[in-house]
Amino acid sequence: MALDNPKLRVVLDDISSGKLQLPEFQRNWKWDDERIRALLATITLGYPLGVVMTLETGGVPQFKARTLSGAEHGGGVTPAKLLLDGQQRLTSLYQALRQGAPVDTEDARGTPMKRWYYINIEAALKGVIDREEAVISLPENRVLRRDFGRQTELDLSTRQLECSEGMFPVNLAFDETEKFAWQMQYIQVHGQEALTLWPQFAQRVLNHITGFDIPMIVLPSETPQDAVCSVFERVNTGGVPLDVFELLTATYAGDRSYREEYGEDFHLGNVWTATKQELTTAHPVLGTLEGRQDSGITSSDFLQAISLVRTYERKQEGKAAAVSCKRRDLLSLPLADFRRLAPAVLEGFDWVGRFLAKQFVFHHGDLPYRTQLVPLAAVHALLSRTGGLDERSEALITRWYWCGVMGEMYGSGTESRMPRDVEQLLAAIDDPDAQEPDTIVEANFQAARIDRLASRSSAAYKGVYALLGKRGVYDWYFTEAPMTGETMVSQYVDIRQIFPKGWFAKNGGNDIRSTSIVNKMLMSYRAGSSATGAPSGYLQVLAREAGLDEVWFDDRIVSHLIDPKLLRADDFDAFYEDRRTRLLGLIEDAMGKPVAGRESRSTRAEGASVDAH
Questions:
Q1: Where would I find the beta strands (DSSP E) of 61-172?
Q2: Residue 20 — pLDDT band, cuts 50, 70, 90?
Q3: Residues 6+ apart with CB under 8 A from 165
Q4: Strand 20-23 and strand 81-85: pairing?
Q5: Prediction pTM value
């Protein structure tokens, strides 16, 4: 890292020629009119400006570059430096001082506008306190109006008018020929007074602009990419975090070997859009392209899965110390490896979509953990090279999945858990005697947890209903067949209370158990409209509406792990304990291990069996 203090003139020349450009990942920003006027006042006083930061390219930029706004004529040039910090300041100065066109800015309310900037010569010479008031801006036509446009307040639409008003256009500050011509006309208009004012103005204002130094930190071209990105995020004050995908998009677009081979830049954004479109069209559980692009699985998820595959391969080859998918691993992912591994990872996520359908998870809003899909896709991508999954392997993965969900293992610390799960799942698949993955070993579901499961955002809450759906549940109005992904949508199935709120209002009021998952079930909107009041009453209504006798309708009740006799008796306490026990048994079966604390409660339905239908 080096410190430099180039002249503002040199920096503006470099911007104009394309020697100084922005990395593609930099977002476009513009300062508002008030801040630009304050900035110009600062440099006319010669006051220090904040440090800017650049990265030397060595003639081979790490990232695809683009010119600063207003200097597009400098495009097509390989930049010598990339601007990492200071975009707003330098863009504002370039447009105001060198662009030769009005500045793209906005007012205090964010309304876009174009402005020319001037310095009132007499006001600027009054003192530093008034300097900011001496800098003014005018609309694109250089005419300032008031009274809703009916009266002209200031007209600088010609040089004659500029000189008459003593308003010097700052865009002439570095143009010696035009500046001299303006000076001569100003003296011609104001005579002896101008001969006194102009030398003072040149010394106390213009010389500060033309002699201004820009404090600059210069990073050498050898600076590692992840360090560049880390530095950029630390100095970026725009308030919007820069993500890995944007950085890789700029990096891949600047890949010369790809451009030489294919005659165009590699567009990571287009590849991801096509990938997401393919996956979400086939599997709505993976998200949607409507509205926000990254609902469901994200571009970062896809990159992390690729990184897991790549680092696993490299570790097996002795080229890497660990399997990993951290930020630095993604930033160091070569384009060649991305292109090589992306198809296998795409197939992995496609398999994940089918796997989730088997687990009765059909929509991304019902997905317990999106992050858990990343190692799952990576494992499939790695196994696909050796014949794919057999029945034993899929059973192991299914158990791992449910341990992750019901043990709520993917709520945090996923960057360390993902690599472990990939390695340990592959080891257990390869060797039946190998130790089980940590996610299976560490997963723990406490019996008391089920009483507190009341929020749709909880992974375990979503998991219980997926397990019930996977087991096979019938609606209480559309009773012909068990629910499917299609009927969940067409029949407007939602989670509804079994003992409704109205029943509690008449029978004891507030009971925290009323909102527990134990007192809820999957039910269509049509069934829910009849399921009001006491269960003993609405069950008769629903059976009649469905055209079933009591015995056949009881089979539909049983499919939800509910004892029909207890429900028809309106005995909430007995119903709750019985269903609680059955749901805990369902969780135990999925996790392949006991539920902790289950024996601590008296469960009158302990050991009872419930047939599917």
A1: 65-66, 81-85, 103-106, 112-120, 135-138, 143-146, 151-155, 167-169
A2: very high
A3: 154, 156
A4: parallel
A5: 0.73
